[in-house]
Amino acid sequence: MDNYAKSILRKKLTKVINKGTLEKKRIVLFGAAIASKEIKNYLADYGYSPFAVVDNDPRKIGKECLGLTICKPEKLLLPFDNSYIILMYSERFYREIFFQLDGMNYKKNKQVFSLNFDMDDSLKIFSYYTLCKIRAMYYHLRLTKKNCATFVAPYTGIGDIYLTGLFFKKYLKRNNINEYIFIVVNGACKKVAEMFGIENIIVLDSKIAEDLTQLNKSLRIQEKVITLNDGWASDPVQWIRGYKGLDFAKMFRYFVFGFDDSVQYELPPRKNWQNEIDELFKKHNLLKGKTIILSPYSNTLFELPTDFWESIVEHCKQRGYTICTNCATKGEKPVKGTEAVFFPLGMAIDFVEAAGSFIGIRSGLCDVISSAKAKKIILYEKDGFFYKSSPYEYFSLKSMGLCDDAVELEYNFNEREKVMEKILLVY
């Protein structure tokens, strides 16, 4: 989802919540897609949680999404039950979904709510995008000057910024760029960019960053505004992700920077974090070389059950390990029996090396710590889909050439014990 879509989704969902529509209702999310994760997270801010997830794709039925088993709509929703509120986000199929649910007596804006722009909002869309272009022109003129390039990283993922950093200096050199500004949309992205010595970093609201990428497309000023994403805002390039081995790194290499396979990565320079690391280990009673960092949070649909992490904790504590959970936001809670630890992203590689072990769901943090000399276990959703491939095929650290010492495992909820056995064998 791009930033416009997220903004629209949140505004529409806020209206539904403020009207009291969700009170004493069971919330059903229609569609096992990234938008459902966004809806779930936003609902949590108001104390709500989804009851079920439904999807028409037969490949997804019976699999897990956001900790819930995906159901066929007819199986869950029939016979009609007025206690259900159905939330959906679908740019392409919302009319078909409305028709399908209407046939089961679930009515639009009564039991069913679309959280994206639809054709009924066409005038609003036109006005909105016109204002956005005006705003983009204002910021472009205000922030840049002659012969100054504008780089825009519109996505919140720190993995995207890490990949950008690997190629950035060589891109500047190859294109004779001496002056630039580097726009990101949050502080975490700024911290990752700083790891690579990137300068002139500006943090802008995600909507403004989105405006600038759209300005790039509409005015064809690629030489002035460079979008640092492999397929942003409905760019058709995104639909070849995963096709014939086009993984995460290759998409950035080929389609963002225009490099061939001969261009080598440039890892971020290391600095001395020894004093800060010593303080963290002392504060949380952690053992150097004998600590496991758990990272159970990510922006993907993939979540592991709480007791899975707790089983790892119990096993490893018995073997003398101290264990902490990486908690980067207020909403991220430590796994039971572990310390909640926050470490700056610039320190991440050194902190993981000092700890000795890292176990996490595949996220942008995995990119950042990929070069750390430590035990690394990375978990992928086995039954997931990412465009033309599986999450593992697209995001594998080994395939991307970021490291060759990580244990990468695909997790299937029906093969939990096998996956757990492989993890515990490491310890």
Summed up:
40% of the residues lie in helices and 16% in strands. The protein has helices spanning 3-18, 34-45, 73-77, 94-102, 122-143, 158-174, 187-195, 206-219, 248-256, 274-283, 306-318, 348-355, 364-368, 391-395, 397-400, 416-426; strands at 26-30, 52-54, 64-65, 68-71, 84-88, 112-114, 149-152, 180-184, 201-203, 225-227, 291-295, 322-326, 339-341, 356-361, 375-381, 407-411.
State the CATH class of the largest domain: Alpha Beta
Summed up, the helix count is 16
| Strand element count | 16
Q: What number of structural domains do the residues give?
A: 3
Query: And the CATH topology of the largest domain?
Result: Rossmann fold
Radius of gyration, taken over Cα atoms and rounded to an integer in Å:
23 Å
Question: What share of the residues lie within helices?
Answer: 25-40%
Query: What about the largest sheet?
Result: 6 strands, mixed
Q: Extract low-pLDDT stretches.
A: none
Morphology: globular
Strand order within the widest sheet?
3-4-2-1-5-6
Structural class estimated from helices and strands: alpha/beta
The CATH architecture term of the largest domain is 3-Layer(aba) Sandwich
Q: Going by CATH, what is the homologous superfamily of the largest domain?
A: Glycogen Phosphorylase B
